[in-house]
Write a structure and sequence with these properties.
The complex is a heterodimer of chains A (about 350) and B (about 400).
Chain A lengths: L1 H13 L9 E4 L4 H13 L8 E3 L3 H8 L10 E4 L5 H9 L5 E16 L6 E2 L1 H8 L2 E3 L7 E3 L5 H4 L10 E3 L5 H15 L3 H9 L1 H9 L7 E3 L4 H10 L4 E5 H6 L4 E3 L1 E2 L6 H6 L5 E9 L9 H9 L1 H4 L15 H12 L7
Parallel strand pairs in A: 1-2, 1-3, 5-12, 8-9, 8-10
Antiparallel strand pairs in A: 3-13, 4-10, 4-11, 4-13, 6-7
Helix pairs in contact in A: 2-13, 5-7, 8-9, 13-15
Chain B lengths: L1 H39 L4 E11 L10 H12 L6 H8 L4 H13 L5 E8 L2 H7 L15 H12 L3 E5 L1 H5 L12 H32 L4 H14 L3 H15 L7 H25 L3 H9 L4 H29 L3 H5 L4 E2 L14 H9 L5 H31 L4
Antiparallel strand pairs in B: 1-2, 1-3
The chains are: A alpha/beta (about 350), B mainly alpha (about 400).
């Protein structure tokens, strides 16, 4: 027994940092279901490359790992459910990563949904803001804000059902929450003229007003797990949930998406941009690793192919919503020419 | 008199409370097991569709393209599917795995004519409908649209749809197609990791315990070590993950996601448990036996290895196996060292990237596809069986090694 452990210790000491033959990908849990499908297709194809290994670390965590340096011990690609930030680009640059190739792959809708047994919601982004923000205008005219005290949806808008506001949604660490706050609440904020005007004057206070979700128990943080939210909605027909479109797509037998600003969340309305609460999904490639790690170029080509993200691509079955053709063509061209990110 | 009646009553009451506690615990356990088994059981079967395959003499079977040949035979069965979208709907009832199965069948076939019905893997959406997980509403069921349902109804009418044993679940690694996803990769990963955790932590732990118990004098230094070990046993597992990241990945530059690193990290985590269990086992060996051994002229080391350790072994093993069983169920430390990942290839050795059973459960329960719900429960069943076997081993070893005096 002791010999074995001695051997192991020696093994530890002598093991070199070896070169990799498998692509390593980290990043967003929203892009994970799409990236894994591409990776599997790529691995099954008869091209001699191994199936890439994909870790689900979240967008922020992924970019941090991605920007931490070059070499075989660092990831080659990171997925993100938001665009890379300036801060992250400079972190990359500090660690010698100057060439990043940006790929947009499509859209993901964020839906507000409730049980098929519950009332139907026809809601506006303004209603969502007034129902869920921590602070809302006291009256419509006087440019003063009060603590949000609305209890039922009817308090917010008389055309909405007379049930208690009870919303299950993702916690602040989630990219889905960031996008929901920005698109739905921020969008709703801007429909109130004086708040919109206020944005130009003082952006950070505007953000604080529009992006802060109430914490009096009406908005319930349900963890990162969208399946859990759906289970809660099924058992409580009066509750409303916030999650990604792909989960609605898989569970239409038990939940239905709310109409937001007159548009119901369907594949077509999100793709055309009519449905407003949707965001773009990305992945970023470290250019320096192309050539030293086999298969990166081919993986990029597979992901950006019409076969995957096109109007009839296989990722559509998994709930990805394709970009308009012209936008797709631009990113496909950038990918082929290994063009550096333009920020 | 009344005193004894009261005392008897209170005794009865106490017994009743105890029974209640045991009953409640068993009830909750049964509810949990029932929930897991009733959800997970259906994942051990999956839906297959029968296709009439006709291949004429003279064609070289191994050179046929599986995809187009299977599709051609399907179209022959449903000549009414003419339009592009109709054909697509028909094909979409099958899993990508169907073509792989057909390819394997063609490669293994040693006749020169095929004529008959063969069954191929159906898609996860159809699987969910056929098993009744997703209910039918009119002409659609969940993601199965009316345009697909007409073909499903045809298959049902012709009696060409059936459940077969799910050979993917225990025979393959992760996949994004639920019908092709399996836990073999995760089982290997877990096996490698526990083996390495055991091999590193057991000798280290037992030696530490012997040293602290028998070979060193009780002083400030040994007190310090003892306190630290007790504290380490209570440290949250994610901290060991960070430690593993810092030592094994960043310093020794071992490969990320390898079960070797997972095993070493879990070994570190198990170490304090083993030390504490071993110390109390060594302490409980009667001193008379050791004194007799010393008295007969054997050295301290001889006494330890011939008498103390064999007598303490049942206790040491029980502690070790409890520690290892805890390690099997851990995901948090594995997150830090990159074992929470999508890995399609089955690991061939401890240096290959792999996941572990609890990680696979964690990844599947977070997937949007409905068919992963039952597969998650099935993976939990396998993990429970794993733990059960380990505990049985523990009981068996203890019974076998126990010595009476």
């Amino acid at each position: 027994m002791n010999k074995i452990s001695l051997f192991l210790v020696l093994l530890l000491m002598t093991l070199p940092a070896e070169a990799r033959d498998t692509i390593r990908i980290v990043g967003s849990s929203t892009v994970y279901p799409f990236a894994t499908v591409v990776a599997e297709t790529f691995g099954r194809a008869d091209n001699g490359f191994k199936t890439p290994i994909i870790e689900s670390t979240g967008s922020g965590g992924g970019l941090k790992l991605f920007c931490s340096g070059k070499g075989p011990s660092k990831p080659d690609i990171t997925n993100a459910s938001r665009r890379i930030k300036k801060k992250e680009i400079s972190l990359c640059a500090e660690n010698g990563i100057n060439d990043i190739i940006e790929h947009k792959i499509g859209f993901d809708g964020i839906v507000v949904a409730n049980s098929n047994n519950g009332p139907s919601f026809d809601i506006s982004r303004k209603d969502l803001y007034l129902a869920l923000a921590a602070k809302v205008p006291c009256g419509m005219q006087d440019e003063v804000t009060c603590v949000n005290e609305s209890v039922t949806w009817r308090d917010v808008n008389s055309s909405l059902p007379d049930i208690k506001i009870e919303v299950y949604g993702p916690p602040p660490t989630s990219g889905t929450r960031d996008a929901f706050v920005e698109l739905a609440l921020g969008g709703g904020c801007n429909t109130i003229p004086w708040i919109k005007a206020f944005k130009k004057k003082d952006k950070s206070s505007w953000k604080k007003l529009c992006y802060t979700i109430r914490e009096d128990g009406r908005y319930i943080e349900a963890g990162e797990n969208d399946n859990l939210i759906i289970q809660k909605l099924v058992s409580n027909p009066n509750a409303v949930g916030v999650f990604g479109f792909s989960f609605l797509d898989q569970n239409t037998d038990s939940v239905k998406g709310a109409v937001v600003d007159g548009i119901s969340p369907t594949f077509e309305t999100i793709a055309s941009g009519e449905y407003k609460v949707s965001r773009s999904l990305f992945f970023y490639v470290k250019k320096d690793h192309i050539g030293s790690i086999p298969g990166i170029k081919e993986y990029m080509a597979e992901f950006m192919s019409e076969n995957a993200i096109g109007d009839e691509g296989y990722l559509l079955d998994n709930g990805l919503i394709p970009m308009p053709k012209a936008m797709r063509a631009k990113f496909q061209k950038d990918s082929k020419s290994l063009a550096n990110i333009q920020y | 008199m009344s005193n004894i009646i009261q005392r008897n009553k209170s005794e009865k009451r106490f017994q009743f409370y105890g029974l209640l506690a045991v009953g409640l615990a068993i009830f909750l356990l049964l509810v949990l097991l029932f929930k897991i088994f009733s959800t997970g059981f259906s994942a051990f079967n999956q839906t297959y569709l029968g296709v009439k395959i006709q291949i004429e003499k003279g064609e070289n079977l191994s050179e046929l393209d599986a995809r187009s040949t299977l599709r051609k035979n399907l179209r022959n069965m449903f000549p009414e599917a003419q339009s592009r979208s109709d054909k697509k709907n028909l094909y979409s009832l099958f899993s990508p795995g169907a073509y792989i199965e057909f390819k394997e069948m063609l490669e293994a076939y040693d006749g020169d004519v095929i004529d008959g019905y063969y069954y191929f893997l159906a898609s996860d959406d159809l699987d969910m409908y056929f098993k009744g997980t997703v209910a039918r509403q009119g002409n659609s069921a969940g993601r199965i649209k009316p345009s697909q349902m007409k073909f499903v109804d045809e298959f049902v009418k012709m009696n060409l749809i059936e459940l077969q044993f799910n050979r993917y679940l225990l025979g393959s690694a992760d996949s994004r197609n639920p019908e092709m996803a399996g836990i073999l990769g995760a089982i290997y990963g877990s096996l490698f990791a526990i083996l390495i955790a055991f091999v590193t932590s057991f000798p280290l732990g037992v030696l530490t315990a012997i040293y602290l118990e028998k070979l060193t004098k009780q002083n400030a230094f040994s007190d310090l070590i003892e306190t630290n070990i007790n504290n380490l046993a209570a440290v949250p597992s994610i901290v060991f993950g960070l430690l593993g990241l810092a030592i094994f990945l960043n310093f020794f530059e071992l490969p990320r996601s390898a079960s070797l690193v997972g095993g070493l990290t879990l070994g570190l985590m198990t170490l304090p448990t083993i030390v504490i269990a071993s110390r109390s086992a060594i302490k409980s060996v009667p001193p008379s036996i050791e004194e007799a051994s010393i008295g007969l002229g054997s050295s301290k080391v001889q006494t330890i290895f011939n008498f103390t350790l064999p007598l303490a072994m049942p206790g040491i093993l029980t502690g070790t196996i409890i520690g290892i069983a805890r390690a099997i169920g851990e995901t948090a430390p594995l997150l830090m060292i990159g074992m929470v990942a999508f890995i399609v290839d089955i690991p061939q050795g401890p240096l290959d990237a792999s996941t572990a059973l609890p990680v696979q459960i964690f990844l599947w329960q977070d997937s949007p596809e409905r068919a992963f719900v039952e597969r998650t429960s099935a993976a939990i069943i396998v993990l429970l069986i794993f733990l059960f076997l380990l505990n049985i081993t523990a009981v068996y070893l203890r019974k076998k090694l126990e010595k009476k005096w």
